[in-house]
Every structure is written in structure tokens, then in C-alpha cells.
Amino acid sequence: DQQVKQNSPSLSVQEGRISILNCDYTNSMFDYFLWYKKYPAEGPTFLISISSIKDKNEDGRFTVFLNKSAKHLSLHIVPSQPGDSAVYFCAASGSSGAGSYQLTFGKGTKLSVIP
Amino acid sequence: DTAVSQTPKYLVTQMGNDKSIKCEQNLGHDTMYWYKQDSKKFLKIMFSYNNKELIINETVPNRFSPKSPDKAHLNLHINSLELGDSAVYFCASSLPGGVAHEQFFGPGTRLTVL
Asked: Which end of chain B has the smaller Cβ count within 10 Å, N or C?
């Protein structure tokens, strides 16, 4: 049972346009949601996060929106750049006790930004 | 000045062998993790260690054993390797209650069992 779902395995966008990556979750107990970016042969790197008590967080070209009632979040990248081409993972966080947080990841969406 | 490092990057071995993957972080973090990314690309938590104490063990076979000699290291030992163990293994670390629960990942170790 996938608690975090990214239903689009891939997305192609023209340079300069907006990229919208979507993520759905099922567990209401998640308290933070994170987006990670991954290049081939590298580990995931943190991009942006949002607390479950907020509905929007912005950092430069990246904005994450959270719709708790729909259990849906999205990552907007604008304007998209060729260097943004990577796999984007949505992750949800819940406490496992003693300061440790378990991240549950989606399957990832491969973004290709076409020059 | 690598934050989270793993060795080796690639590991090819025969079924039945025992192998280890090493992980080190120089971030001063208190908690370290091991994740497995299987052929379906899912990243799944295997273990986490906080101050040398196992916090999570997500239905991982007992052939896998994490060992933490100190706060900066969390090694993964795998006994009697099976074909299904082939995957990419990622180490990660975090501060307790760190910024937005962010975890910092190593570059991964691609394990191939023949």
C-alpha cells in the first residue's frame, strides 16, 4: 500500500515555462512534506518542504502547495531551466520517536526541461 | 568536504556471500538511516540509528544488520546475499527535529548480486 503516490512517471516542459509536479498521500498523520531532487548516480538532495499546518511555501523559483482536505501537494517550478531536469521525489514525514523521522517516498517523477 | 559518504559506490558479488557497505557523515548529525531503492525505484527506509540506538526496523530480513561504531558512522552488513538484494542502498543523516525533518543523503551504493 503506497502511502505517497506520484502518478506521473515523467513530465516534459519547455524552458521558461512552469513545471507542476503532483503528489497524493493517504496518511493524515504526516506532519511534514518534502520534495527531493535526484540526478543520476547521486543521492537525493533536499529541495523544499512544507508543514502540514501551512498551505504554501516558496523558495525562489520553487513553490510547494498543500491541500490537506484533498491530501494533495504540488511543486511548481517557474521558470523551468534545463538544469532542473532530474527525478523529483515527494516525501512525507512522520515521527518515529526519539527525534527520528521516517520519510515515506513516492516513486518519483522524471522532469525533462527542453531548451 | 563530502557531507555523507558511502563506500563502495559499486559492489558486485555472488549469491551467498557476506558484504558490508560503509557510511560516514561529517555533519555532526545525531540520527543516521539506511534506505533501499529497488528495481521499481521506490525508496524505502530500512533502519535508523539515534545515539547508537536502533529506532526503526521496517520488516527487513535479519540477514541485514546495521552497526554504528560511533555517531558519525552507520555501516550495513548483509549476510547470505540473495538475488533480490540487488538494489541501490542510500545512507542518510539528520538532526533530531532538524529543519523540516530534512535528511541528507549519500551518493548511494549499487549492489548487484549474481
From this structure: N
